[in-house]
Amino acid sequence: MLRERQFGDVNAFTVRILSSGPGEGEPYITTDEAIEIRNRKQTRLCLFVPSDTVDAAYSSLVNSFAPLDGRALHATALQRLLGRLPDAARRLVRDVRAVLRRPLHVGDDQLLDFVVAVLALATKDAQDRAGMELWRVGLVADARPDFTAFLDPNRRAALQLTRPAKLTATARERIAALGVDVATGDQLLAFFASRAVYDARVVAGLGSGGGSDVRSLGLPATGSQRCPRGHNSTVRDRRWRCRAVL
């Protein structure tokens, strides 16, 4: 997509991934093939080198190619994608980014992946389903159209499960701290029976499908908020259940 917008002719710009051996097919190429493309000078070549690549000839690429800052590539791609979003979708992305502060660890590639997913939904006039893509940035998928109203408790729920104050807390203790009802707690315990509760990728994918019915649990709605009467409270299914401070 980016090469089409930048150069028009897709043949004028080639993107490949370095492979440690032959036979993997596109988009992978070997070091020798990369140098051959460069020497022919018939196209611009952008070569991605995986960090775990082990190749004795890799050092020869240093003298054959100019390095690119991957962070700059991500930033450019992100800005271009944001520019293609409708105003409402752009505000949605802004709201999500606002809660992705530490200790959540969200990389540039994750954020870019989320924006791509939102853009795909926006082009189908289905951006109200963007909450189901929150797992891409470490939050719990939320099927509600107004999921942005629950981003702060969503963040707290994700952190409570993956990074509780008591690092040795069991799955039952972490779930209990969410303040969900008994039925929801039992379903979450069943979900985590064969999964690592401390794995942010697992927690983030709670509602993203995969044959699980956890998307109906409403987990992002749980979390402490201010009661209209000034009490400490827990919101469940958008109903106030006050617990007065004695």
Describe the structure.
With about 250 residues, this protein is of the alpha/beta class. The protein has two domains: about 1-70, no CATH class; about 70-235, no CATH class. It is about 40% helix and about 10% strand. The protein is built from ten helices and six strands; from the N terminus they run H-E-E-H-E-H-H-H-H-H-H-H-H-E-E-E. The protein has helices at about 1-5, 30-40, 60-65, 70-85, 85-100, 110-125, 150-160, 170-175, 180-190, 200-205; strands spanning about 15-20, 30, 45-50, 225, 230-235, 240-245. It has a three-stranded parallel β-sheet with strand order 2-1-3. Helix 4 packs parallel to helix 6 (about 110-125). The radius of gyration is 23 Å and the shape is globular. The termini are far apart. Mean pLDDT is about 75; it is low at about 1-10 and about 210-245.
Short description:
With 246 residues, the protein is an alpha/beta fold.
Structural class: alpha/beta
Question: What percentage of residues falls in helices of 4 or more residues?
Answer: 25-40%
How many distinct beta strands? 6
- Number of helical regions: 10
Whole-number count of domains:
2
Overview features:
246 residues; alpha/beta; 2 domains; disordered N terminus; disordered C terminus
Present the secondary structure layout:
Elements: H1 2-7, E1 13-18, E2 28-29, H2 31-40, E3 44-48, H3 59-64, H4 70-84, H5 87-98, H6 108-123, H7 151-162, H8 171-176, H9 182-191, H10 200-204, E4 224-226, E5 232-236, E6 239-243
Parallel strand pairs: 1-2, 1-3
Antiparallel strand pairs: 4-5, 5-6
Helix pairs in contact: 4-6
